[in-house]
Each structure stands twice: as structure tokens, then as C-alpha cells.
């Protein structure tokens, strides 16, 4: 694993717990972790259960006792690390968004195809049992033709103007702001549940344009540098966009870090000709469903606690009603990754999904600049010509 803070903790926890909950033929062995600061990476290796550490990620890739490279560093490092790992024949799990630009994402996809290695993107929210169950209902036709997807990812952790200029607010490190950080997740959920997006129209806004310097310090916390030098925020604080899907559905999306009181409000509602579903991460074990063929007088949204043994992934955990949490979405994702490595295929979401997601992100940025609709397929075709 390269990197060891917020996602480093989430992924390491999932590697440790995976053999405990899932009976798999292939199980992860936490062989080594890489970080630039020897003191800090040593502490992380001990705490998170890695047998060894490296202070240069390239050394990790050279090692022949490592099969899988897990990239949990800021976005500007993903492309170089993933391509180097794939060229060395390693399997790769990469955090989202996979790149800073669509061209880089396409380069990563090409490297993945050439390598024959297994590749996956860490869009963990797909792996909430309630989201997988929603997908099952949609696939079974329980909602019929899909008309609307309405998705929001609402946070508020940067609202205080004294929140420092961390890597998440610098374009050269992160690519985009709320758009790529949390918008990427709802784009993935919409693609997973409803299908491919044909075109988008979006707007971006940066409410606080200057902040004091500082660093992320674990989770979504930060520390301000003593110098307190002010610097320019170069990414969006909020992104709002609408889309048309290939299958005719309409999408409305909102990704913002300025929705006060919403700590991690990742929500969607999908309306189809025969029913609707609603989900909210902060109440992640529940799925609200409405079916138009329910008896008249008893119609309305009802709540299913998606914790029955028959529900996706739940037979690995506890008896019905004994809920699971955020961290288990990573275990579920990793169980698919281990099966992929065992059997030699790249489970979805893989780098193809990563590139499609990046195309939507880039299209929204282009749309916001030009105030025009942007066609996703055309953008990908034009970008792939530059490969
Ligand atoms: N799937 C999710 O829900 C989710 C949530 C948060 C973040 N992420 C993604 O995970 C990635 C990491 O985010 P985070 O919140 O863990 O960040 P973070 O700031 O908490 O941790 C980043 C880690 O990368 C290390 N690092 C930075 N540059 C490095 C380099 N050049 N070489 C080696 N190590 C380096 C840092 O020292 C730190 O350990 C990002 O791509 C982010 O978008 C995903």
C-alpha cells in the first residue's frame, strides 16, 4: 500500500478484517507499506499491521514478494504509480478519481489492458449492501423504465474560511474540488445503477477564494501551518450538473462541501415507471422502496433494513438487523478484488469505469467553462486520439 492516512486506515482495516468475515481462496497478506517519512511510515506499518515498509514507492513496485499495489495517495500521484505498477506486472487497486485528467485516465486504462493484471478503482459505496440490493431490484425490472436519478453528495468540512489550503483544494494535486472528490462517487453510483451518461451540463463555484496554508491530518481534519501564509483556492467548492443517460433517463446531481450540517450526505433517489428507490449513506443499512403495484391505500415508500442473510454480502456478517458500517463497504469491495485476482479478471469498477468516470468529470469542467452541453462519447474519442 502506498500512503497511510485516511484511506490508508480504511483499506488497512479492510485487509485485516477480510479473512475474518469472508471465506475466500485468496486472502490479502499485508506485506509492505510505502511513505516518504521513515519515522511516520514505520509507525504506520506497526499500527496497521504491515510486515515491512519502504520510503520510496518505487522500491515497493520492484519487490517480487508483492502482487498487489494499493494506491491511497493524493490524485496527482495515481497515474505514475499505477502505470509503473502495471508495467511491473502488479495488480492495482487505485483510489478515486483515478487521475487528474481524462487523458491520464485513458493512459492508465491502456497500461492496464496491456499488462493483463487485475485493476480496480475504490468506489466503495457501490458495495454497501443496500446499494447492491437496489441494483438487483433495477436489474429485475422492479422499477421498470428509469426516468430520473437525483443524486447528492453533501459535506461541510471546508466551510470555515480558516480551514487551510490542503491538497484537496489545489488543482495541480487534486484535479478538481468537490466535483472529483465526492461528485466522482455519485457519478459512479449513477453509472452503476442507471447506466452510461450520454451528455452533461454543469456549473462550478468556489465560494472561499483564499485560505491559510496547511495540511490534511487524518480523516477530513487538517492543521494550519504556523506561517499562516494565504494562498489561492484553485478548485470548486461546489458542483451542480444535469445529465442525459444513454437509456433516456435524466439525472440531476449536486456535489458540495458547503452544505452546512451535512457531514457525509451521499444520497440518491431513482424514479422508474413501476417504482422508486431512495438511499442515504448516513442511514446506509436501509433502502426506501416504493412500488406502484402495491395495494391501493397502502401505497407509499417503505423501509427495508438490508441486513437479511439473503441480502448482498450480509451472510458474511451478523444476524438480520445487526447493522454494518462504512468500513464494511471496503471489505465487500476487497472480497471482489480477491476473487478477481484468483480467477484472473478485473471486477467492476475497474479502470474502464475509472476512465468513464473521469470523462464525466472532465465534461462537467468543460461544460462549466463553455456554458455548453458536452457529449461524453465524443470527448472520450477525441481524447483517445491523443494517446
Ligand atoms: N473511497 C473513498 O471514499 C475515499 C475517501 C477519501 C479519500 N479518497 C481518495 O483516496 C486518496 C487519498 O486520500 P486520503 O483522504 O487518504 O488523503 P490523506 O491526505 O489522508 O492521505 C494521503 C497519504 O498519501 C501520502 N502521500 C502523499 N504524496 C505521496 C507521495 N508522493 N508518495 C508517497 N506517499 C504520498 C501522505 O503522506 C498520506 O499518507 C485520494 O485519491 C482521495 O480522493 C477516497
What would your notes on this structure say?
- Residues 132-278 form the GFO/IDH/MocA-like oxidoreductase domain.
- This is Gfo/Idh/MocA family oxidoreductase.
- InterPro entries: Gfo/Idh/MocA-like_OxRdtase_N, Gfo/Idh/MocA_oxidrdct_glycsds, GFO_IDH_MocA-like_dom, NAD(P)-bd_dom_sf.
- One of its GO terms (molecular function) is nucleotide binding.
- The chain is α+β, with helices and mostly antiparallel strands and 387 residues long.
- The protein has 2 domains: 6-125, NAD(P)-binding Rossmann-like Domain (Rossmann fold), CATH 3.40.50; 129-283 and 285-324, Dihydrodipicolinate Reductase, domain 2, CATH 3.30.360.10.
- The chain contains 11 helices and 18 strands.
- The protein has helices spanning 6-21, 38-48, 57-62, 78-87, 102-115, 129-139, 171-174, 178-193, 326-343, 351-370, 376-384; strands spanning 32-34, 52-54, 68-71, 91-94, 119-121, 146-154, 197-205, 210-212, 214-216, 222-224, 230-232, 238-245, 250-256, 265-272, 275-280, 286-291, 302-305, 374-375.
- A hairpin with a 5-residue loop joins strand 15 and strand 16 (286-291).
- Bound molecules: nicotinamide-adenine-dinucleotide.
- Nicotinamide-adenine-dinucleotide (NAD) binds next to helix 1.
- Nicotinamide-adenine-dinucleotide binds next to helix 1.
